[in-house]
Specification:
Jelly Rolls; three-stranded antiparallel sheet; about 50% strand; mainly beta; globular; about 120 residues; about 0% helix
Length: about 120
């Protein structure tokens, strides 16, 4: 049904995410990452996502040829992550990242996490 939707903010150890769209076909989020913080080194089994750097400076690490490399996103750049791709974000300054994905919020396999959440999967 068309109309206004509920917007949720979820606190994270690295900042917070604002979920502004959540349907059975897609999810839209804004990730606010505090300077000096980073998300988990992770991959997804099913989730397919694309990110767009709205503001800030960050390193966006993506595994290519088995090695994590910074793909150097700048404001206005977008990058797609397909299932199985190891990746993580590291904020140099406060950052806002627009993320659109399939609705598989629980599909997170954490390989390394500075906040002690390795191996867990939470929305």
């Amino acid at each position: 049904m068309s109309g206004r939707v509920e917007i949720r903010t979820v606190n994270k150890p690295w900042g917070y995410e604002t979920i502004w769209a959540h349907t059975d076909q897609y999810v839209g989020k804004i990730l606010h990452i505090v300077a000096g913080e980073s998300l988990s080194v992770q991959y997804h089994n099913v989730k397919d996502e694309t990110v767009y750097l709205l503001s800030g400076t960050m390193k966006y690490w993506v595994a290519t040829d088995g090695e994590l490399r910074d793909v150097h996103l700048r404001e206005g750049d977008a990058y797609r992550i397909t299932p199985g791709t190891v990746h993580y974000m590291e904020a140099i300054t406060d950052c806002d990242v627009l993320e659109v994905s399939t609705p598989n919020l629980d599909d997170v396999v954490r390989l390394k996490d500075r906040y002690g959440r390795e191996g867990t999967s939470t929305p």
